[in-house]
Each structure stands twice: as C-alpha cells, then as structure tokens.
UniProtKB/TrEMBL annotation:
Its main location: nucleus. InterPro entries: CenT-Element_Derived, Homeodomain-like_sf, HTH_CenpB_DNA-bd_dom. The keyword Protein biosynthesis does not apply. Keywords: DNA-binding. This is Tigger transposable element-derived protein 1-like. It comes from Bactrocera dorsalis (Oriental fruit fly). PANTHER family: PROTEIN PDC2 (PTHR19303:SF73), TRANSPOSON (PTHR19303). Residues 64-146 form the HTH CENPB-type domain. It is found in: Nucleus.
Length: 199
C-alpha cells in the first residue's frame, strides 16, 4: 500500500534535496519520510524553485507547508512578525483586526514587487480570514495577553516643554480661557485592553 500523501514543510524539502545531492536513492528517502517515491522525484524536479523560495524567505519559512511559487505569503507573515515585535517594543497594543488589515496591506505591497509568473497567476487571492489568523498566530507562537498599566510610556521631554508652547500659542492667537477645552480622557477609539506578544 502506497504511503498516504502529506504536505511537506520547506525544511523537509530542503533535507530531501540535500539527501539527493548526497546521491542517496529516492526510494530510501521516500521510505524514511513516509512519502511516495514520485513525491521525491517531483521535489527534485522543482529544486530550483524550492531553493529560490528558501533564499528569498530565509530560515523563518522552514516550518511552512506551502506552494513554493507562493513566496509572497511567507514574506507577508515575516513582515507581520517584525511589525508586531516593533509595536510590542513601543508598548502599542495590537488586536486581530489590526493584524488582518496589515496582512492585506503587506500582501498587496509584496505582490506588486514580485515579477509576474505562471505560479503568481495561478495563485489564489490572499484572504486574511479567521482560519489564516489562527494558523499565523500558532506558527509564530504569538499569544494574546492582557495589558497592565499604561499602554505606552509618556514622552516626558515633550510634556516639559508643552506648557510654554501652549501659553505662547494662546497669546499669539489672542485666545481667551473660555475657548480652551480640556479633552483629557476623550478617546476617538477605545484602545484594546489586550495585545499579542511573541513567546
């Protein structure tokens, strides 16, 4: 009975290609990875595309199981992780809606940068669905945590010089006390109480 067909990660494909390069027999490789020998030969035939994907996307893509022609999605996820790390570093909360919106923006950007090819033309349009989001969070070990304390640290230097700047502005434009409105505590959008962090 032939082994059940399974999707291989980029890491597994690279391992198989390296085994073939070492002159190991395809039958032995297939048996070890529990795949059909024809799958090994297909991987060999697509060696250039597989290695190009690894070169363009780097080691962060090794655990992905995807069509090698779809390098764009891997780049999107890598860019998203960097973006989330930056927000976490700046103590800016990020929720699922923000992640989905940013993923779509990155996808459109990277898709335009990628040269047109048959693989690109046959590629399904990216959709930042709930299913994709669950897989993205799991693949990158992102966890939803409750925010404690202030969302972002205050700019103390700006706070020190603001009173004088504010006073000068009032004098320059001839404002009176009745025209000054304190908007402390007024929010255009409520900030999320939770955010995603990398473990």
């Amino acid at each position: 009975m032939a082994p059940k067909r399974k999707r291989l990660s980029l890491r597994q494909k690279i391992v198989i290609l390296n085994s073939l390069k070492s002159r190991e027999k395809p039958a032995n490789i297939a048996k070890r990875h529990k795949i059909n020998e024809s799958s090994v030969r297909t991987i060999k035939r697509k060696e250039n595309a597989i290695r190009k994907t690894f070169t363009e996307c780097g080691s962060s893509s090794l655990t992905y199981s995807f069509n090698t022609g779809d390098v764009v999605k891997v780049k999107v996820e890598r860019a998203l992780v960097w973006w989330i790390e930056d927000l976490v570093h700046r103590r800016i909360p990020v929720d699922t809606r923000c992640i989905k919106e940013k993923a779509t923006v990155f996808y459109e950007k990277f898709k335009c940068e990628k040269p047109s090819s048959s693989n690109m033309q046959n590629m399904k349009q990216f959709c930042a669905s709930n299913g994709w989001l669950r897989c993205f969070l799991k693949r990158n070990s992102l966890h939803n945590v409750k925010i404690t304390g202030e969302s972002a640290s205050a700019d103390e230097e700006a706070a020190k010089i603001f009173p004088k700047t504010f006073s000068d502005t009032i004098k320059a434009h001839g404002y009176v006390a009745d025209q000054i409105f304190n908007a402390d505590g007024l929010y255009w959008k409520k900030m999320p109480s939770r955010t995603y962090v990398l473990s």
